[in-house]
Amino acid sequence: MMEYDFDLIVIGAGSGGVRAARVAAAHGANVAVAEEHRVGGTCVIRGCVPKKMLVYGSHFAEDVRDAAHYGWNLGETSFEWETLRDNINADVDRLEGLYTNTLDNNDVELFRERATISGPNKVMLQSGREVSSRYILVATGAWPMVPKVPGAELGITSNEVFYLEKLPRRVMIAGAGYIANEFAGIFHALGCHVTVVNRSDQILRGYDEQIRDRLLQISTQKGIEFIFNANFERIEKKDDETLRVHFDEHPGCDTDLLLFAIGRSPKIEGLGLEEAGVKIDDKGAIMVDADYRSSVPSIFAIGDVTNRVQLTPVAIREGQAFADAIFGNKPTRVDYATIPSAVFSSPPMAGVGFTEREAREQFGAVKIYTSDFRPMRNVLAGRQERSLYKLVVHAETDVVLGIHMISPDAPEILQAAAIAVKARLTKAQFDETIALHPSMAEELVLMR
Length: 448
Description:
By secondary structure, this protein is of the alpha/beta class. Helices cover about 30% and strands about 25% of the residues. It contains eleven helices and 22 strands. The strands form five sheets. Strands 1, 2, 3, 4, 5, 6 and 17 form a seven-stranded mixed β-sheet that branches. A five-stranded parallel β-sheet has the order 8-15-9-10-11, covered by helices on one side.
């Protein structure tokens, strides 16, 4: 048999790549990982983890205001962006150390440099060293997209937002997906004037319409400004270092910070994939089969780079399935049918299963149950913000096809509720479950 330097080389040390490397090594494989940035990938270093910490930090603004209604006299308060920023980045450093330790503890060799594919079984490192491997796994994730308009380089993406020197007074966010709405809530709570600009007339396309409409209503009431059906024409820097943003059919706007959150594309540029014979689809994603194998039998891909589902837990499951199948003799495939997701907006959204529109398109008649209420905490705090829970139920079988909600702690509640949807429980079984009172979660079993 042909000799290789490694059994597996993983390009990309994000959550999916690290899981695949660790599990493959545990099965006895000789594994190496190449990472040109930092170990941990998008989620840990410049994505969901530091962003969730920003969400926590921004929520204290409302907590402080609400505290007075609960009898707390806190006196004068102030916020220091630098403290929050530096503490978050310090914890990111800690997490990177843990991910690196995971590789070390499993005897995975780490190349801290860029790697490109130089053949079906070969990888060229930036240092000039070429190494061979029986299998290559591409797990390079995705990268923020930036519009191709004059002056786009004056804006930033979610990669840079965690390192701002100071908190801007005005923030313009391009896009209306989950990243855009999350940062809109964060910056608004921290005292910035936020303007969200989108090229279409809706936010959060693909999410349940009632839930996303409620978020738009709440966000607008909070003071977040939305500009719809707007396309960027050019961006200019003014003499005072602020930005002037020009649109095609809307008046221009001034801002101190322009954040592009218009989507993410697979990070494959310059990897040598097409030269090696790997097929790429029209969206720039690596085409793989159900077992993550590309058009080249020795090259596999998982996670955002395949553009299936851009979620960290999905990439982790795919990495586990790949390693178990190839090195553990345990053929496994990921079930993509019922994946819960959340938007850590203000308030957060969460959902699993079919939206109402999707259910009607596939099954025809469905039953919809909703609970529209003001959380107890908001009542005493004097805030009018209302929560909305929604069950989508099959009209004939009574199976709960989807659960969608916008409410404080919605993601925490939905994780358990997602098990019920996965298990195909019925509305009757929800009704038979005794409510946990007083809680917001009890509304899930009280809808009639």
